[in-house]
Amino acid sequence: MRKDFKIIFSLINNNSKVLDLGCGSGDLLELLAKKKTIVAKGIEIHPKKASESIAKGISVYEGDMFEVLPNYKTKSYDYVILSQTLSEVSDPKVILSESLRVGKKVIVSFANFGYISNRLSILLKGRIAQKTLYDYCWYEKKYFHPFSILEFERYCLQNDIRIIKKILIFGPVLLKHYPNLLARHAVFLLEG
């Protein structure tokens, strides 16, 4: 199981209503539905992944979240999850804003673009470290908006988004004093 899934699992209360944007094959929602008896709903644009979610018994809307999110009522979900999703959408600002409107709380997990191995690769090789933080190369995605922990925190501050909790996933380095440099991934619990 992905490390961010374990953290997200720990943040969600039992019997919650959860919407997962970019739910993929539904692994996280399936786990939450079985172990925390949540009411699960997902949105996934890729037909094969949406079908895999549906086969697991997850209610999934197959299509573009930009088209369907405006139809959801304000604060209609306890949690909206953006797990490794925000950096892959065409307009992250809109999706985050709509998520904060629809969800009472929003969970965002992402790979930290400021991670040391990526910085060193840019410095020494002149290119982004391939598949160090992401499971794909930059050219394999239609949209690719990498950002660091500090950039995300600054964005939240500038837009009056309350950070309730921040959990960092560190790489093999034991020092945890410089999170923007040494954390590979981050999980944020937010309120709008």
TrEMBL record:
CDD domains named among the record's database cross-references: AdoMet_MTases (cd02440)
InterPro entries: Methionine_synth_MetW, SAM-dependent_MTases_sf
Protein name, per record: Methionine biosynthesis protein MetW
Protein source organism: Desulfurella amilsii
Lineage: Bacteria, Pseudomonadati, Campylobacterota, Desulfurellia, Desulfurellales
